[in-house]
Here is the input.
Amino acid sequence: MEIKRILNGLERSPALLRELVAAVPAARMMEHRIAGKWCIHEHAVHLAKVQTMINERLRRFMTEAAPEFVPYVPGTSTPKDELMKLDLKESLKKFALERKKFVGMLRQLKRKDWQKKAKHPEFDEYTPYIMARHLVLHDAVHMYRIEELWLTKDLGKK
Here is the structure.
């Protein structure tokens, strides 16, 4: 298990997201460059929204014998315009705070706790280790999309 690398990635994401969003021109933040896909604002605030849910999942891993999770699917289990209504600055602050709490909780886990199993209908296997690694990858996907939406020419014509 690459716990230290995962923790490092998780700790770095809030600062990287803040830096990335700060570089984006204001006119691009809410622009939907691809029909039916999220804008930069939605990708950024989504990370904070997800982090709060993930913190609760980790709390349940720590307190329940066999937790069972329900998928979070934005736009289907929540209103379609929910992310557009969230304040970006507040969301970035919340992301940093909630991520710090999450990493703190992860650091409390004993080595065997990282492999505790839970049920999740979207995954064949789900443990705190898989959840944490998945979150590092999830951060990267959304930050890549932000950069792509910001910098790629003629993106809507692909």
